[in-house]
Fold:
Amino acid sequence: MAIVNNKPGVLNRVASLMRARNFNIESLAVSVTERSDTSRMTLTIVGDEVHVEQAAKQLYKLIDVLKVQDVTDESIVEHEFALIKVRATKRTRPEIVSVAEMHRSKVVDLGDEAVIVEAVGEPTEIDTLVELLREFGIKELVRTGSVVMSRGSGSIEEQVKR
Amino acid sequence: MTQAGHVPGAGTPAASAAERARRDMLRDARVTARDGVRPRIGADALCEAILLQGSDTIWGYPGGVILPLYDVLVDHPELRHILVRHEQAASHAADGYARASGNVGVCLGTSGPGATNLVTGIGTAMLDSVPVVVITGNVPNALIGKDAFQEIDITGITLPMTKHNYLVRSADEIPHVIAEAFHLARSGRPGPVHVDITKDALMGETKATHPSVAEIEAGLPGYKPKLDGHPRQIKLLAEAIAGAKRPVILAGHGVLIAGAERELLELARTAHIPITWTLLGIGVIDETDPLAYGYMGMHGWKHVNRAIQSADLLIGIGMRFDDRVTGNVRTYAPKAKIVHIDIDPAEIGKNVVADLPIVGDAKHVLDALLPLVTKVDPATRADYFAELATWRTESEGSSWHGSGGFREGVLSADFVVDRIAAGSNFDANLTADVGQNQMWVARYGSFRRANSHLSSGGLGTMGFALPAAMGAAVAVPEKVSWAIAGDGGFQMTLQELATIVQERIPVKIALMDNKKLGMIRQWQEIVYGGNYHSEQLAGPDYLKLCEAYGLPAWKVSKPEEVDAAVAAALAADGPALIWFEIAERQNVYPMMPAGKGLSDLIDKWGDDGEDVTEGATGPRVDPMDPTSGGAK
Ligand SMILES: Cc1ncc(C[n+]2csc(CCOP(=O)(O)OP(=O)(O)O)c2C)c(N)n1
Ligand SMILES: [Mg+2]
Structure:
């Protein structure tokens, strides 16, 4: 995860660097932080330790990047949000609702032919839910990509030197 | 004018009283113009900001949206604008200016094609960590994004090849952005910074003042180059040195950028370690010093690569173990513990795995290391040094350099480079182009001091020599500036002959004419089984060319004519050119084929002693004549 200046073009700089250095971004989530002049990016990059470390170092070379933290081996909370539109009939609707409820998710839209399930949790939990819902037929799926926070009192935002 | 004693990385030079007075004057929001006083506009702020940063020269070319700047240049007479003939040359000249002086170079172009023409020079400066500030004009704010006339997304283009870039849309931003751009360009690991300024910003009235260094730094919370190495790592290095039997220092550009030549020499002397260098590290040590062992890598000296392969400790300082230096990394220095000192943390572990990484500025790290290094009695390394000396004699003897480039009737390139260096008392700045000529300069230039060798190492940009030598000549007028170029590279930027004549820039050009894209020919011979294509190069009659441009020129085809021509070119007041008709098929040996390792050097002389000048003595191929055989 990285804290960056909240300025136009910064996302482009990060994306361009990742492309040029041949790192593949699995997922990316961006939002403003507690302070409005900085944003937080959570990037998921797949690779060995050296690869990921190199990605972090390259990120640091960007002037607009204030702090980078590789949390691969750290104790973190990692959550993702998903919306899943599932094909439904009168007969399957109750089943879908109960699958959703068993997986810490809920139905947020209930139509005659489709329901939308909202899920929050670890990416693997969402994977499992998606797998189960696939039996009914998934019409649409959107996932935000992971956002993470390290456990305990440490704060990446507080580590930004100003 | 060079700024004496300015250390890159040290931020804005300390302001003297006169300097402060000038700064105050500049901060006044009005400008004395030809006819009285007029409001200060963004373009004025730009000129002031450049001057305040200690740069006095802009290499540029005008165009529509940048004209507001040209409209006010007359009011900033301390700022010299040199009109080039192609923007690519402006970017290389700013680069050469920076490499030779350590000061930031500045170049300028208009939007669209002016800006894209600068791109090659930006990439060249990026890969070689050269501090350059590149300024382009852009279309008025309201037209941005509209595909307006000569609009191109130039910041999008330069983003991946600059240390940082900006799009400035208002005059008030200019002083801060320019000061920040210079700060970023010269500090930490230097590099090019691009500032794209819209026409409105150049024309808008502004009272914005110039920031102090502290203000600039406060505005850059994400940018804190780490200068001091970790004390624990430095202590480990001192211990590693004490325990090493066959240590070798690998010195790179970072040593020169940090100005750490003295500290490097002290380390080598105290612990009795041979110094080897990368292409951009040439000049870290006087090559005649007993501890100077030589140039490494793909076309480096065999003895140097041998020493690296047999070392038990490699101390890389301010270098990046790139592929031209290591060859195949799997077979690189198999017995060595690798120490890697570099200011850029991302370099560490990028190409080779460092056993002992130290992030920091070369000078800071060496300063901290020196007191911890135990003095080594040279006698204890006698066997090691004796072996090194034997290897060296062998490898130098197997090359033309050792066996004498002066061969009957043959003008060999190494001999020419050697005579140019000697004829200039080993004190000139030599700027190489790219190709065989570049390697000959690196191997035979016999460099004695820092920043006297300029070469496009990382990008390998043909056409670099003449414009970069132009920059060096202006930055360091007290040193002779040679451009040593192949006939291919010279033909890429020879339009700058007009610039050096018009501006009276005393560049001395050594045209190494083998009538070939020599390095291409060499690869086609060795790597592609002699399947030659597009390596024959027609060129003009260079004496007539120079006559047309108005500069003196000499043609040299025999070894015995070289010294006189060099002396004549040096004696000429202003620019001059020597057209050396060198052997057409001389190869650069040794050579490490791509993908191979440092131990797999091809060395023609070592193998069969075959004379590689056969092409020069055999039937001559006239490249202008399509019926004459060609190399096939
Ligand atoms: C702009 C550019 N285009 C192509 C190349 C590829 N290249 C490398 S060396 C070389 C031949 C150079 O020929 P010349 O300038 O005559 O120098 P020589 O090798 O003969 O000394 C070429 C084409 C390059 N380095 N730069
Ligand atoms: Mg040539």
Remarks:
- Residues B 433-437, 460-462, 486-489, 512, 514, 516-520 surround thiamine diphosphate (ligand 1) (CB under 6 Å).
- Chain A touches chain B through 24 residues (CB under 8 Å).
- Strands of chain A lie at 2-5, 25-32, 38-45, 65-68, 76-87, 105-110, 114-121, 138-143, 147-150.
